[in-house]
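Protein in question quoted for reference:
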Amino acid sequence: MNIEFKKYAYGIVYALPCIYLFIGYWWLGNPELSLVPYLIPLIVFGLIPVVDWFLGKDPVNPNEGDQVDQLISESFYYWLTRAAVPIYLATIAGGAYVFVQQPMTYWQQAGWLFSMGTLGGILAINVGHELIHKASRIDQWCGGILLSSVLYSGFKVEHVRGHHVWVSTPKDASSSRFGQSLYAFLPNAYVKNFVNGWRLEAARLASKGLPALSWRNELIWWNALSIVMAVLITYWLGVGGLVFFLVQGAIAFTFLEIINYIEHYGLHRRKLGSGRYERTDITHSWNSNYLLTNLLLFQLQRHSDHHAYPKRPYQVLRHHEESPQLPAGYATMVLVALLPPLWFRLMNPRVDRYYQSSHREDG
């Protein structure tokens, strides 16, 4: 495999919303197909981990000498992520229509909503994350629209100005501590990240002599966009459409925080004699380099490189063997994180071994 193959293989992620919409259309005409609503989770958490294991690791790192500048200059990579905006909005509309029009049991409703929320975690959250790190206005707007579609627009502010500043320190609610279970982590992350997003935006405005409730507060606009989306889908499909919109967003942003839990579990930055924390580098995030999930998530799994060099676009993120390594891809690790005893048994020794082998202080 080479860079040129990966260039087009990233587009495989859009197969998932196509499958979701196709099976929804198929289900409308064949109501007896009771397993249809669970097909997306079966693919993401069943098939993909198996294929990841079969295909193995991603062998391609861009050559700094002649490939990186070329890859950064190619507009294809940028439009590929921007395409998530119309595709995801169309998927919400199609999914909501099926949810309202197709007679479903509670079990089927749960599956259809979970499928949509899973897609939200992959497309709206993950692609939105990539876009909000870009400097261009079009990317910033696309990222904001995607995050608004899953009711988590505060992430646009908090992630860049909060998480990337305080990652792997006690000040970051998105960095899980050693011995902390997922279920202890999630409520804290929800609340503190929401509050911190508004606090950071208020501080930005205060530095310009503006009040927090200024029209220039971007969180007011992005949250207003979420409300507009909710009103439109309610007007079109009624209360059922609103329920679909709200629940898919909650599932999607929960996946985001589960991934945050996985990406930084037990890792920390040392406090220096000056009282400041050491600079973030490739040792402060868990890395995973399984090929298929790398492609589906626009290389989010190369998270160590992303935090060390947050301005690097997804197509030039590198795998670092010396970074702490997860034992599997993200889909598998999500399932493990849901079972704290299994998670601690698998990950705590890895944290200990990593700090012992790298001669760093554990904490």
User: Anything to note?
Assistant: The chain has a mean pLDDT of 95. Residues 268 and 363 are 7 Å apart (CA to CA). The chain has one domain: 3-357. Residues 3-357 form one domain.
